[in-house]
Amino acid sequence: MSAWGFTLIQALLYLALAPLLAGWIQKVKARLQNRRGASIWQPYRNLFKLFAKEARMAHTASPVFRAAPYIVFAATWLAASAIPLLTTDLPTAAMADVIVIAGLLGLSRFFLALAGMDVGTAFGGMGASREVFISALAEPAMLMAVFTLAMTAHTTNLATAVGDLLVSAPFLRPSFLFALIAVVFVVIAETGRIPVDNPSTHLELTMIHEALILEYSGRQLALLEWAAQLKLLLFATLLVNVFLPWGTAQSIRPDVIGIAFVLFVVKIALLGIALAVSETLLAKMRIFRIPVFLNMALLMAFLGLMSHVILEVGA
Amino acid sequence: MSITLALQLAGGAIVLALLSALVSFFPAAVRRHVAMPLFTLSGLVALVAGLVALNNGGVATAQLPLGLPWLPWQVRMDVLSGFFLSIIGVVSFAVGIYAPGYVRGFEKGSDSLRALGGFTGLFLAGMMLVVIADDAFMFMVAWELMSLSSYFLVAWHHDHAANRRAAFLYLLMAHVGGLSILLGFGVLASFGGGFTFEAMRGAPLSFGWASAAFVLAFIGFGMKAGLVPLHAWLPEAHPVAPSHISALMSGVMLKVAVYGFIRFVFDLIGTVHWQWGVVVLFFGSLSAVIGVLLALIQNDLKRLLAYSSVENLGIIFVGLGLALLFFAEGHPLIGSLAFVAALYHSVNHALFKGLLFLGAGAILHSANERDLEKMGGLLRRMPWTGFFFLVGSISIAALPPFNGFVSEWLSFQAALQAWNLDGGVLRSFVSIVVSLLALTGALVAATFVKVYGVAFLGQARSRTVRRAHKVPLSMRLGQGILAILCLLLGILPTFFIELFNAVPREILGHGLSQVSAHGWLWLTPISEKTASYSAPLVALILFVTLVLGLWLVGRGARRVRLGDAWNYGHASLTPSMQYTGTAFVQPIRQVYGLLFQINDGVETQQDGRRRYFLQVTDRAWGLLYAPIARWVEWSSRQAVRLQSGSIRIYLGWTLAALLLLLWLEV
Question: Which of A47, A54, A62 has the most B C-beta neighbours within 10 Å, making it the best mutation to test the interface with B?
Fold first, then answer.
């Protein structure tokens, strides 16, 4: 099987696994709160239901509103497919390096925010405003952390970087730890989890992502929900495969891939538990507390970069 | 085809531009049908000339029978001139197609269309003369022609006092900058022993004198380019001109300043030093961040676009600063990469800023509105302009697969090679600049979500906007050309980089060797292992996924049902309930509040109603411009003491001055 063929399979795997991660986190959270909770397959049922339902749209909606779910979905999926899930033998990683991935996520955010402003409701505008606000704070921290890694591995190609990290194992470097903390903070903000946003709330004045997609229904809503789950899996994969790359295959031999898959599922499941625990312990922040949270991420990323360029280069 | 042909074509383009200026003074019937086509043709010829020069390389020179007896004007065509000539050409071409429809809107007004056409032609000729000038004398004459003719264009709507004030400020700043450039040339000329650029290239300069010349050039060209903290005139002057002129000023004239800086520093001075790179990087990144934050809070669309030009020129100068740094430190490959990134961004900015200003002009033409807070829902009223404006917004927000992303990607790749530099301080400095670039990128996206969301989406907030009509075909065509180019430069970067690569190869003696080593699909600036980006494949896969998604999920059989907006169950949605632009940026304004001068509060009006007011101003006024203005006024008051009214004292002063000069001469 060619590398491109496997890349397609991996991209489909992203689509298939994304709702599962969402379901898993919900389930663990429910258990932590002494509830039985819905089945971990519930997100699949929701998507299936929404796809079957009729879509309804406001008169005032423009073509941007119609096109946005498809663009958001396509851009997020393409970004995900360039991140090594099981193997570093990934032609899409050469096509889209980590800066392109950030760009594609930016494209999807751009259209999501535009769609929020399209119908002309106050909620949509508020969501769009907050979404771009948070991303403006998170972006520098994210890129600074990524650049620390890119400078360590001397590449922005994620597959090459992960392959390099597997060999050189620089995991005890201070820059890496700082970058890890920064990325965790950013991922929480970017995927709209507690304490930045709450994906399960529809409280009018606190929601961000939900406010953006408030006017959507039916299959359009399904696509957006799916894209959001995909984004969560994308960032989770980025975290575990860059910072804990052990087990990631460097070829597409079936046995190595099998081991990689098992290890990946274990790593993601553990990450999901960690996320659920933190979401149970923490409360959502007021919107103007978020800059403090993200400046912390920026500071961590900055310390990581500084300790890299000052202490580690040439060492 | 050869480089000589390129020079001849450039000459032809200048003659055409001058003819277009001349024809504008003919009777209205002739003017209407001949002047703008000549202008368009001039742009097209300039574009061809530039592409021929870029494609062939080499140098062609000629002497004009103009100028001083001992210093005839020298003209010269090389790849650098060709590159900037093609930028001038392509935007002028689109503007020339767009302008007739737009200018027709002024026919009923009181302002002279002759003056508009005449100075537009002169302006174009001036810019083209600047890029082919080969001696300091001709360069300054052409520079002045460009500045003065654009002054008259800025002052064209002279009914409003604010416009006259903006034009005066523009004239003043253009001349302070011009003076600084002149002094910079003076340093080079006195060491090189002549005013021709050839003599200046050979000037033996010590580090101190070279730095003095560099600083003068940086101030002069940086002022024209609108770098912070000298930028405050730019957002006053550019928006005041008619929109197609704003497109030329922001899209093209600022690039002429970039050309001047590159010609002066990289070509004439030649030997560069890393300290210069640090200075340019500092002011470049400062301009990028401050420029975009100020753009974000504007509610006047054209002012917003002008502030965004400050930001984009900042990004271009970040690229040039990186190039200086890496060349001085002996890493020519990375230096060329940063240089190409700056060139690429120059083209990109010319294209998308031209496009966005033409879009703003279309709104002005059909709804007579510049205030974002009164717009809304324009996408439905003017679908083509809305579509092109969307392309421009995505491009300027540096999102794939459009052109802005390519230059941002190249800049990041160059900056990420900072580990090659010696010393932790330089490496961390470059890294901080990189994160400022990332911040800028995110804020630009926020800015253009605001612009597009408030102006084109939602519902109209005023009656004129609700009745906006489509603009004529020619205006849509002008925007369409630029939009298509934005996409082309976004999805086929390897072709264009190979073309632009001639500039660092011939001017700096080192180019990028690996750009398309793996075929045109793969952009690999340094090596395949370091980084690669395949814009055509990304665009293709995005497109295929979109089409597949639409086909699988959104098939026509299951139509979308239309109804009222749900709006969380709240009934009766009115346009005034929408988020405004001011509200949209409130969180960001609050976080970066220190950078603005914010004056807000609640005031009680005469009828007893209370009203919230908010005024945000650029700090550059209070921190830099106002003190200088006060100092100038103070020193002129001191100078007034000389004016005693007595002729004997005046004669005494004259004698003293004469004696001083004689003493200096000895």
Answer: A62
Does residue B426 surpass a pLDDT of 90? no
* Domain membership of residue A293 as a residue range: 3-312
Backbone angles phi, psi at B60, to 5 degrees: -130, 135
Q: What is the ipTM of this complex?
A: 0.95
| 3-state secondary structure (DSSP) of residue B350 | helix
Amino acid at B339: F
Paired strand residues for B586: none
pLDDT at B557 over 60: no
pLDDT tens, position by position, B293-304: 999 999 999 999
For residue range B8-41, list pLDDT tens digits in order.
Answer: 999 999 999 999 999 998 888 888 889 999 999 9
- Map out the domains of chain B as residue ranges: 272-551, 619-665
CA-based torsion, B29, B31, B34, B37: positive or negative: negative
Which of B382, B545, B576 best probes binding to A when mutated, by most A CB atoms within 10 angstroms?
B545
Q: Do A113 and B449 touch (CB under 8 A)?
A: yes
End-to-end Cα distance, chain B = 56
Q: Which of residues 505-524 of B touch A (CB under 8 A)?
A: 522
Considering only CB atoms, which chain B residues are within 8 Å of A123? Answer: 567-568
CA distances A174 to A161, A188, A296, B431, Å, are 18, 22, 16, 17
Look at B551 and B50; give whichever has higher pLDDT. B50
Window 69-98 of A, Cβ < 8 Å to B = 70-71, 73-75, 77-78, 94-97
- Collapsing DSSP to helix, strand or coil, A63 comes out as helix
Contact with chain A for residue B637, Cβ under 8 A: no
Q: What is the pTM of this model?
A: 0.95
- Asked if B12 and B132 touch (Cβ cutoff 8 Å), the reply is no
Which residues, at least 6 apart from B208, have a Cβ–Cβ distance to it below 8 Å? none
pLDDT band at A207 (very low <50, low <70, confident <90, very high): confident
Give the whole-angstrom CA distance, residue B56 versus residue B2. 6
Neighbours of B164 (CB within 10 A): 15
Whether residue B505 has pLDDT greater than 60? yes
B545 shares contact with chain A (CB less than 8 Å): yes
Residues of B in contact with A61 (CB under 8 A): 565
Residue B127 is predicted with a pLDDT of 96
Is B391 within 8 Å of chain A by CB? no
- The mean pLDDT of chain A is 89
| Residue B459 three-state SS | coil
How would you class B613 by CB atoms within 10 Å of its CB: exposed for 0-12, middle for 13-18, buried for 19 or more?
A: exposed
Q: Are A116 and A211 in contact (CB under 8 A)?
A: yes
Number of domains in chain A: 1
Tokens standing for residue A33: 């709160």
* Phi, then psi, of A245 in degrees rounded to 5: -75, 0
Kindly report, residue by residue over A59-97, the tens digit of the pLDDT.
889 999 999 999 999 999 999 999 999 888 888 888 899
Question: Both ends of chain A: CA-CA distance in Å?
Answer: 41
Q: H helices within B105-160, ranges in order?
A: 113-132, 136-154
HSE-up of residue B176 (Cα within 13 Å, Cβ side):
15
Q: Is B71 helix (H, G, I), strand (E, B) or coil?
A: strand
Gap between the Cα atoms of B634 and B618, Å rounded: 24
Angle (nearest 5°) at CA B245 between B242 and B251? 135
Q: What number of residues does chain B have?
A: 666
Cβ distance B449 to A51 less than 8 Å, yes or no, reads no
> Helix, strand, or coil here: B435?
helix
Yes or no, beta carbons of A120 and B577 under 8 Å apart:
yes
Residues of A numbered 40-59 whose beta carbons fall under 8 angstroms of chain B's beta carbons: which are they?
A: 51, 54-59
